[in-house]
Amino acid sequence: MGYLDHAATTPMRSEAVAAMTAELERVGNASSLHASGRRARRVVEESRERVAASLGVRPSDVVFTSGGTESDNLAIKGLYWAGRDRPDSRTALAVSAVEHHAVLDPTQWLIDHEGAAVCFLRVDDTGQLDLDGLRECIGEHESLLGLVSIMWANNEVGAINPIAEIAEIVRSRGVLLHSDAVQAVGWVDVDASLVDALTVSGHKVGGPHGVGALVIGRDVTATPLLHGGGQERDVRSGTLDTPAIAGFAAALEAAVSTQVERAKEISTLRDDLVARVLKLVPDAVLNGPKDTTDRLPGNAHFTFPGCEGDALLMLLDAAGVECSTGSACQAGVPQPSHVLVAMGADEASARGSLRFSLGHTSTSRDVDELIAMLGPSVERARRAGLTSVPTAV
Amino acid sequence: MRVLAALSGGVDSAVAAARAVDAGHDVVAVHLALSRNPSSHRTGARGCCTLEDSRDARRVADALGIAFYIWDLSERFKAEVIDNFVNEYAQGHTPNPCIRCNESIKFSAVLDRAIALDFDAVCTGHYASLVDREDCRELHRAEDVTKDQSYVLAVLDQQQLKRSMFPLGGSIKTDVRREASERGLLVAEKPESFDVCFISDGDTAGWLTSKLGAQPGDVRDITTGEVLGAHEGAFAFTVGQRRGLGLSRSSADGAPRYVVGIDTASNTVLVGLSHMLDVDEITTLAPRWCGAPPVGEFEALAQIRAHGEALGCTVLPTNESIRVSLSDPVRGVAPGQSLVVYDGTRVIGSGTIGSTRSSRSPNAREFPMHASGTSA
Q: Do B67 and A314 count as a contact with CB atoms less than 8 A apart?
């Protein structure tokens, strides 16, 4: 079986499994004062230190959460609310048009329920942020703008944003910058000190599901989403999940410490995948940045003209090759990707696209299996694509 | 065989898919998304295609260990079933949307796509039987006569029947529910769905008014020409209807009045006495035959409603129509309904009813009174 969907989730690293399973057998609430509690707290705090060291920040900047979605929601809503409640009430925010739904949907919620003013920042045809658009937005809304959220790297087309440059533009104006780095961590050098808040997820780096972190400086105020026992600096209440946190920290440390050589290897494998797909299906179009230094090492995203992505996905699935259309479902129905639409793609090519994503366990055999199955699948999906053209009544 | 099982989220399609898996086929499940804005959950027995149904369908597929996908057919469904339904009512007809859905969605759009994707057959939870003969495949009534759905499948031709699989044809509903329960399928106790799936509250007249707008007109006595009342839209009436006519004046003799016709040209609902509803000749629009088209007149059974009885008749088939002479008159036949011709339990073919008449009535009348373009 060829697993080419590491951007959705990737196998747990052995370090993470070991760290997590060791903790699963022990008792202890990290908030308790007795010996078991102290022992658990020590594991949590050492994990926090490992996460902080891997991301270039102080341990006190790390807030553990239930994962990427919660971290994004805490960043968007929590920082918006805190900014709104400042004396110079900041009621505007800016997000890129290609953010994950975990950023876009809370933003839309703030528009609908709180009257937030929002700039949806444009991207170029490779999916990278248009810096002039960002400057324009800041110029227009400077006195109201409290928060900008730009993903470190895009989950669908793999475009890496120039976060250092963006940080300079945003933070020099006293505006907070959040970055969703869920896809970037472990694949590119992520220095969390460049931004005010950073989202990281456990299972995307080879840790367990249901755990992640929001890296957020101590001097940055966020209004909590979850109120309760006051854990995590009072920003995120809830009993700490010691086993998951231990697994997450072990995975993140392993991913970051091996990043340079692993990125090189996987990038080479990905280039091979791209070359072979384009040779096999000459009219396939590679979406996203052409320059591989601007693209996540494991990402390859194509449009197959004349095919519906979900038909192709189903055929490849039946042939044992697992990949993704990369876009979300609405009401259970696959929607044309908002990322490709924002990049200027028409609806047909947005529907006819597929993402192959490699990860830390990928080998050339995965690529071989894809290549062996892709030709007949594309041919068949094309024929099926023709039958689904709506006919007149 | 590679089988595509359509899973609605209900008990019948779940057991049908399970049996296809047991039979050793390579089964993949699809749930058809037929609405752009599905409700989140079902209320009672009405409606279908909610997000809850979609999740139930996925749960069934997971329990059977088969792949599951959602196919978005909402645009085709709107164009070919919902719009057709509205247009037919606007023309004074009484359409059957389940038949249109089988004809143009399940066994056309879905089947075509399935074939293109290398499937051999489409499997559904319909109650109908397929019988393979040497040179053709026959469609028969289901074993469970109370659930028989051969009527709504009578539009399928030989090519479609050969690619169809109805594993429930030989079963009765109570056994199917028990089997679902024994298999641990959580949809076993789900209520039956009735009515038109896209009208969630069951109020067809209200729904049509929202689509077509109020169109006030007269309710007129067909014999005397007298105006007996007013209506808000002729599309809300069906031939044979007695209730809800809102007549402001009763007739001189006090006998109950029925809708005997709808004159779309003048937007008039025509009412008359019950005997005026009796017809014994029915002519359909272009027929669809399940097998080779029959030649010449023959004796058969005709069914004109989904759960109606089979009526003895003589059938005269042509390329353009099926003309049926009933042994005994039948009351309240509306244009737009389907007429299905049976030989015993076997479906021969079907056609949409275009016109009806009574050969015995002294003042024989043919409906519709004004020929209107038909689109079925």
A: yes
Q: What are B110's two structure tokens?
A: 């879905």
**A337-379: per-residue pLDDT in tens?**
999 999 999 988 888 899 999 999 999 999 999 999 999 999 9
Name the DSSP class of A153.
Answer: B
Selecting from B70, B79, B117 the residue whose C-beta is nearest the C-beta of A333 gives B70
A306 has a chain B CB within 8 A of its CB? no
Neighbours of A109 (CB within 10 A): 14
- Helix (H), strand (E) counts: chain B: 10, 18
Give tens-digit pLDDT for B230-285: 998 888 888 888 887 877 766 667 788 899 988 988 999 999 988 888 999 999 99
A331 near B CB under 8 A: yes
The catalytic position among B101, B123, B290, B313 is B101
State the Cα–Cα distance between residues A199 and A212, nearest whole angstrom: 8
Please state, in angstroms and rounded to a whole number, the distance separating the CA atoms of residues B132 and B139: 9
Chain A positions in Cβ-Cβ contact with residue B79 (cut-off 8 Å): 390, 392-393
Using CB atoms within 10 A of its CB, is residue A13 exposed (0-12), middle (13-18) or buried (19+)?
Answer: buried
Query: Which H or E run contains B278?
Result: strand B278-284
For A186, counting Cβ atoms within 10 Å of its Cβ (0-12 exposed, 13-18 middle, 19+ buried), the class is: buried
Nearest to B117 among A329, A380, A393 (CB): A380
Residues B41-52 as b/e (b if ≥16 CB within 10 A, e otherwise) read: ebeeebbbbbbe
DSSP assignment string, B139-198: EE--SSTTT--HHHHTT--HHHHHTEE-TTTT--HHHHHHHHHHTT-GGGGPPPPBS-TT
Give A205's pLDDT tier (boundaries 50, 70, 90): very high
> Kind and range of the H or E element at B217?
strand B217-221
Report how far Cα A1 is from the mean position of its chain's Cα atoms: 25
A1 in contact with B, Cβ within 8 Å? no
Other Cβ atoms within 10 Å of A291 Cβ, number: 8
Regarding beta strands A92-96 and A117-121, do their DSSP bridges make them parallel or antiparallel, or are they unpaired? parallel
| Helices and strands of chain A, counted as H and E runs | 13, 14
- E strand or H helix that includes residue B75: helix B74-77
B interface with A, Cβ–Cβ < 8 A, is: 28, 31, 33, 36-38, 51, 54, 67, 69-72, 74-76, 79-80, 83-84, 109, 112-113, 115-118, 375
Distance from the Cα of A56 to chain B's closest Cα (Å) equals 43
**Could you tell me if A310 lies within 8 Å of chain B, comparing CB atoms?**
yes
pLDDT digits (tens, 9 = 90+) for A33-75: 999 999 999 999 999 999 999 999 999 999 999 999 999 999 9
Residue B66 near residue B27 (C-beta atoms within 8 A): yes
The partner residues of A185 in beta bridges, in order of sequence, read: A188
The Cα B350–Cα B289 span in angstroms is 7
Q: Are B148 and B342 in contact (CB under 8 A)?
A: no
Residue with tokens 């045809």: A125
Q: Which helix (H) or strand (E) holds B5?
A: strand B2-6
pLDDT at A387: 55
What are the CA-CA distances from residue A226 to residues A44, B88, B135, B202 (Å)? 19, 55, 69, 43
- Tokens describing residue B54: 């979609």
Q: Is the pTM of this model over 0.80?
A: yes
Quick check: B345 and B151 in contact, CB under 8 A?
no
Could you please report the per-residue DSSP string of A60-109? Answer: GGEEEESSHHHHHHIIIIIHHHHHHTSTT---EEEEETT--HHHHHHHHH
Of B179, B102, B133, B124, nearest to B340 (Cα)?
B102
Across the interface, of A331, A386, A390, the residue whose CB is closest to B79 is: A390
